[in-house]
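Homework-ish question, so no full write-ups if that breaks the rules, but can someone show me the predicted structure for this set?
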Amino acid sequence: MSKELWKGNEAIGEAAVRAGCDAYFGYPITPQNEIPEYMSRRMQEEHRVFVQAESEIAAINMVYGAAAAGMRAMTSSSSPGISLKQEGISYLIGAELPAVIVNMMRGGPGLGTIQPSQSDYFQATRSPGHGDGRMIVLAPSGIQEAVDLMQDAFDLADRWRTPVMMLADGMIGQMMEPIEWKQRPAQPPVDKPWAATGQADRGHTNFVTSLRLDSVDNEAFNQALQEKYSQIREQETRWEEIDCEGAELILVAFGTTARIALSAARKLRQEGIKAGLFRPITLWPFPSEALLKAATQPGVRAALAVEMSAGQMVEDVRLTLCGAKPVHFFGRTGGMIPEPAQVAQEIRRILKEGQA
Amino acid sequence: MNASAFPQAGHRLYVIVGPYGSGKTEVSINLALRLAAQGRHPALADLDIVNPYFRSREKTAMLEGAGVRVIAPDPATAAADLPALPAAVWQAILAQDLTGVLDVGGDRNGARVLAGFAGKIDEQTPAVWYVLNRTRPGNQTVQQALHSLREIEAYASLRVTGIISNTHLLHETTAELVLDGAAFAREVAALAKVPVAGYAFPRALTDGMHGLHPQLPLTLYMNRPWEMNMGEMI
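A: Not a homework solution, just the prediction itself:
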């Protein structure tokens, strides 16, 4: 199959269709509007559900309804719209419902700008909405990876009965790249005996809720949830390492900034400076064990987190390295994108000034 | 006239339309720079009201430095995605001492902005060029491409007068792909009953393109952030 040129947002829509998304619910916001635009046409062609809801809040609650009925459901938005969905995400977690949520981040806070950002890391990886919940957060750094991860996202959501967030930024949504549609092995149908699909052969109806008034029950549920999260940490953590072996400095970056950091590292190789890239692909679970290993190899003097934020993922880097190595941070905010030359300059400064 | 000169005829106004991702902005910028080098006082109007990123207005400093006047939304709203255009667009269309280049947004919705100007545009006997990239979904068969071309004509209320062959995969473009795209462009052009007005390709591939006339080797300006200031691509 020859390659095709796809825009990130359209490709994510098509990947969702190919992953068997039964129902899409959304509300427009730049820079992700091509997702609902694309889905409005494609879902109709496939005789599946597309709804432009009256708000982001309505859309996430429609996702809840469709997921509770056993459908593969998704929504997409950008930062301010994702803030509105937080309550719904917490309910999805509380009801253990599978769903896929795409966030094409833009610069905040507030309405901010339509230019790209990564400043929703905290919101995505700490506790979405209220309560002690988590969700799997996938961070593609290119359109091919976004397509591949989008297909995995639905499988992960079903497998773990959890919302999964695809966390990218406006640059990934808006840019174009050549991609290849890979033939996926046929997936076995997912059994959802908990779904509210009427009595079926069960002799009773299922009831999907996040309400557990008895605190004893609710604590037992929370303990089971945490046990599930331990298993997700063990089995689903993903990352990529490029040129970390023999590196003096480990760059830690995800998504768009990982591409920028890699450009800087390659430039510095020509000057004899060895910087490697550690790229988390799952932001939750964060690949702590692997990062600790990469950053404490002989010869590594420091780590540098690069983000389009005032410093969010860097907190996970610090928690991981816990003083084992100095952790530096370089970021741009508000919709500004770091330039490779700026990152390269920061690496030179850290290594030269002996601050490492 | 030299068979490989580009643009072939001395139009006063060039209207660049086509699907998303066909390369309208790169073609518009390269055309405007070429017109500037030819002393034809180009005015490039950024009419893209459907894309929030990768718009020619982002290259204003470089273009103006090279002698291209850039007509784009007021700086106060340039970073927004408002469906509003500055009145100065009329200058690119009407001013007889300028050569206008209209960089239009993608697909039929991007072309829709032209309808309001179409009567006056027509009076200039313009070149209306449909930029064609076969690697884009929805433009992979002759019938699909022709359908998209006719749809854009209908929304713009303008007739396409030529096709710019620009089949590419950004930095993965090969000579073979360009030549395959060129043959495809000729098929689409024949059905649309218009000429291939030009063959665009990345400048680095120029050596393998002797058979294509007229040709527009492209320098790519709309790079992604990790390609900036580094002189290298990944």
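Now go work out the reasoning yourself. Hint: The longest strand of chain B covers residues 196-202.
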